Amino acid sequence: MSDPYDQLVTRLKRAHTLGTVADLLGWDEQVNLPPDSADVRAEQLAVLAETQHAAATDPEIGRLLDEFGRDGSPSRPTEATVSALGSTRSTPDRAVVLRHARRDYDRATKLPAEFVREKAAHSSHAYHAWADAKACNDFAGYAPFLEKHLALARREAELLGWGDRPYDFAIDKHDPGLTAAQITALFAELKRALIPLVRAIRDSRVRADTALFKAFPVESQLVFLREVTERIGFNYRRGRIDVSLHPFCSGTGADIRMTTRFDADNPLDSLFSSIHETGHGLYEQGLPRAHLGTALGQAVGMAVHESQSRLWENQVARGRAFWRFFEPRLRALFPTQLAAVSSEELYLAVNAVEPTLIRVDADEVHYNLHILLRFELEQRLFSGALAVRDLPAAWNALCTESLGQTPANDREGVLQDVHWSGGAFGYFPSYCLGNMMAAQLWAAVRRALPELETDFARGDFSRLLGWLRENIHAHGRRYDTLELVRRVTGEELSPKHLLAYLQERYGGLYLG
Ligand code: ZN
């Protein structure tokens, strides 16, 4: 009889592989699908989701898990498990895989099929209700869908034993181990220092001119961003980049699908969104291939994922050393378009700070304020302090307070994001936590490799990637978010590195 652990891993990998097929169909839906083929794709995805769920809840997985204790040793050593393992001693790797497999299995099996179906169907309806509400600027039409999503989120938490802490459960789904209380403390510290910085930059006489860029042919933009993303380390033999309406990155280590979008008059948008997605892609490509399908081959959570994309997008690609290398290349590709643009103007445009009501358009100084607002509102919704019908007014009030701008309508206010329409509460904080983590990792890697930016100016990003591979990517889900940060940076996750980084980069540019 083969090792029960190997039998378990075979089953986990099968469920994972089915998930990757669904990912691929999802990618294809957004990149290639002919307009009248949406129905058949919805059917394909539904059948696959059912098959994948059946694979992930295979009772044989439960039986095999029951053969092991928490540390990965056989819980009831039988002749078969003992002889198959060679001894009753476990290995740390196995303990990690078993711990996560147990958690995932419990979460997949404790929810009644009826509930799973209801939530999936509601998400689909709510998505369309949101899209319609956004198009017609009609929050009232969407409110009942949001109310039901909140009720479903509470019910799910209850079914999984988190009934007294439904919002913590929502957070834990994206960033295992983190709680609303921890995030509240981190965000409060961030906000105290961020608001004065934002105000000072707003009062600065320095202004970036983002209308400098006109008529950048898309073909050449693609050449440039391919070159940039390849040079920072993306392996195009195990991934590709295509065009979609909204940029994203899907797939796992062996096959990464990234997307971008092009605007001839805004080449920085496609460039930076591609670098961002490349950061996600590099993380996935760096996860140990042999462990794909188990916790050791999986990303820790959304905050760590976002730390990888933000680090490359912001700390690296908005820095002077990066542009020292890439500016000549950009000018060679767009000689006439950039003829009248000075190096300093280009660098300032790369680091433009401009308040906006729209999160996805926000610069990195303002971005976190958009997240703080959403986190605050999610907590009030979950505590019952805020009713869904009062959400637009609460949104606008917070927006005015923190961003100094008031949405003229709900389309540029509470209806702007897709997340809640899919029931994805507790997701927004990951973006801001990822920003904090990126800055903290950046401080740590600069301590460890002080000459790093000299490398960048030569177009060499391999030492940074190597450091991330070794310290973050190689571990899969061995450590939870906060433990990983502690181990890699030697300190607790804190906003102080993000604040210092923003002060250094943007204070330097705008507050001279
Ligand atoms: Zn991202």
Structure explained in plain terms:
By secondary structure, the protein is mainly α. The longest helix has 28 residues, at 4-31. Helices cover 62% and strands 3% of the residues. Mean pLDDT is 93; it is low at 80-89. The protein binds zinc ion (ZN). The site of zinc ion has 4 residues, from helix 11 and helix 12.
Outline:
The chain has 512 residues and is mainly α. The protein contains 21 helices and 3 strands.
Topology record:
Layout: H1 4-31, H2 38-56, H3 59-66, H4 79-85, H5 92-109, H6 113-136, H7 139-159, H8 166-174, H9 180-202, H10 218-231, E1 239-243, E2 249-252, E3 255-260, H11 267-286, H12 302-316, H13 320-333, H14 343-350, H15 367-383, H16 391-403, H17 428-448, H18 452-457, H19 462-471, H20 481-489, H21 496-510
Parallel strand pairs: 1-3
Antiparallel strand pairs: 2-3
Helix pairs in contact: 1-2, 1-3, 6-7, 7-8, 9-21, 10-11, 10-13, 11-12, 12-17, 15-16, 15-17, 17-21
Bound molecules: zinc ion.
Zinc ion is lined by residues 276, 280, 306, 309.
Question: What characteristics describe this protein?
Answer:
512 residues; mainly alpha; Neurolysin, domain 3; 2 domains; three-stranded mixed β-sheet; 62% helix; binds zinc ion
